């Protein structure tokens, strides 16, 4: 029997150093969804129609079932609705051999959740004061740009000077938080939250939840609601093959086009060395992906767990090319809270495109040999 293990992240993007301890505490408590610090559930970004619309998904590595919701506006914890969808796929027998859904969106998802006894809330309760401030600020900027074409300037690919000057602005302005997205600069806000875990029997699972980008079009779905893009989990299929669980953060459209969660998982399974595999997949399958050939700035973060049944060890790996990513982990053999960690990238300018000394180094390599 193995030890249970979990790792969490509160997004790849920009995380204010002023809030460093708050983010680390958040990881330790593993309660991301009810925190206004993150872009998920309560406090999420607002769409163009001034509403919270959340995406979330869960994948079970044992059954390979997947449950997801999208554009959900009246649930504090949309990932619980996704979990319910996942569980009912095996336990629900519909008349006339109809197939239970694995993905529901909008009002249909809300109706289904209520029919299963999940308590919803008034949509306004999910709207935070900070989200309203951010919405008003950038809605005004968009309107000004639309009324005066001279103000609509295509942003050039970022470099060190631009990125760090914007980071400094956010540090010095209490009104700008890590939930803020600047049109044309999503590197400052990609606070999707996610988790990967394994139980004492070696079953793995993953989950992801996001409020999406500010001023998104109503009904827009990000990677958190799409199969193989926001979360992936797969148990060991043999006594020698590893089990993997992956959760992603970043620009949803980029992660969808590359099916990045599943791609990362498949690479980790086929590579003995997880670090080498992560380096390869982040470069070849994302930054150099032919599906993103016309994209100037490609932004992503990924957290993964790989369990090797032969050595009875767990590797936790992450990679990101955003300014920062916040992580935490815990195992059942630890008596204290989760360890919080903030990862920062080292940025280099190559040609006209930002490149990264990718954080593919191990957060840890946990090799606790457990008693049988």
Structure keywords:
about 375 residues, alpha+beta, eight-stranded mixed sheet, five-stranded antiparallel sheet, 15 strands
Q: How would you summarize the topology of this molecule?
A:
Blueprint: E1 5-13, H1 20-29, E2 54-60, E3 66-72, H2 78-91, E4 103-105, H3 106-115, H4 129-147, H5 160-172, E5 193-198, E6 204-210, E7 231-234, E8 243-250, H6 252-257, H7 260-270, H8 274-287, E9 300-308, E10 313-320, E11 324-331, E12 339-344, E13 346-350, E14 353-357, E15 362-366
Parallel strand pairs: 3-4
Antiparallel strand pairs: 1-5, 1-11, 2-3, 2-6, 5-6, 7-8, 8-9, 9-10, 10-15, 11-12, 13-14
Helix pairs in contact: 7-8
How would you describe this protein?
- This protein is of the alpha+beta class and 372 residues long.
- It has helices at 20-29, 78-91, 106-115, 129-147, 160-172, 252-257, 260-270, 274-287, and strands at residues 5-13, 54-60, 66-72, 103-105, 193-198, 204-210, 231-234, 243-250, 300-308, 313-320, 324-331, 339-344, 346-350, 353-357, 362-366.
- Strands 4-3-2-6-5-1-11-12 form an eight-stranded mixed beta sheet. A five-stranded antiparallel beta sheet has the order 7-8-9-10-15. It has a two-stranded antiparallel sheet with strand order 13-14.
- Helix 7 (260-270) runs antiparallel to helix 8.
- The longest helix is centred in the middle third of the chain and has 19 residues, at 129-147.
In short:
The protein has 372 residues and is of the alpha+beta class. It is built from eight helices and 15 strands.
Give unreliable regions as ranges.
Answer: 31-37, 156-190, 346-372
Distance between the termini: 5 Å
Helical region count?
8
Radius of gyration: 20 Å
């Amino acid at each position: 029997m193995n030890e249970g293990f979990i790792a969490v992240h509160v997004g790849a993007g920009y995380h204010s150093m002023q809030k460093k301890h708050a983010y680390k505490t958040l990881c330790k408590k593993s309660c991301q969804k009810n925190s206004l610090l993150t872009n998920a559930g309560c406090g999420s970004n607002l769409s163009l129609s001034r509403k919270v619309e959340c995406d979330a998904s869960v994948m079970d590595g044992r059954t390979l079932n997947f449950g997801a919701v999208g554009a959900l506006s009246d649930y504090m914890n949309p990932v619980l609705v996704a979990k319910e969808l996942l569980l009912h796929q095996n336990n629900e027998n519909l008349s006339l051999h109809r197939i239970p859904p694995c993905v529901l969106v909008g009002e249909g998802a809300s109706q289904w959740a209520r029919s299963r006894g999940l308590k919803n809330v008034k949509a306004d309760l999910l709207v935070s004061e900070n989200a309203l401030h951010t919405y008003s600020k950038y809605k005004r900027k968009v309107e000004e740009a639309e009324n005066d074409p001279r103000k609509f300037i295509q942003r050039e690919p970022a470099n060190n000077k631009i990125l760090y000057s914007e980071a400094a602005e956010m540090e010095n302005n209490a009104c700008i938080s890590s939930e803020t997205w600047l049109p044309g600069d999503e590197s400052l806000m990609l606070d999707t939250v996610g988790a990967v875990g394994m139980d004492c029997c070696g079953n793995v699972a993953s989950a992801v939840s996001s409020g999406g980008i500010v001023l998104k079009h109503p009904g827009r779905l990000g990677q958190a609601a799409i199969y193989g893009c926001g979360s992936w989990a797969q148990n060991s299929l043999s006594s020698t093959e590893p089990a993997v669980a992956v959760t992603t953060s970043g620009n949803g459209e980029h992660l969808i086009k590359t099916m990045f969660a599943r791609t990362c998982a498949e690479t980790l399974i086929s590579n003995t060395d997880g670090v080498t595999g992560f380096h390869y997949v982040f470069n070849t399958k994302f930054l150099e992906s032919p599906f993103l050939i016309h994209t100037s700035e490609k932004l992503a973060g990924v957290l993964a767990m790989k369990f090797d049944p032969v050595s009875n060890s767990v590797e936790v790996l992450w990679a990101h090319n955003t300014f920062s990513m916040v992580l935490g982990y815990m195992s059942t053999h630890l008596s204290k809270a989760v360890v919080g960690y903030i990862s920062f990238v080292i940025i280099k300018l190559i040609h006209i495109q930002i490149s990264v000394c990718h954080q593919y180094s191990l957060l840890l390599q946990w090799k606790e040999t457990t008693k049988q």
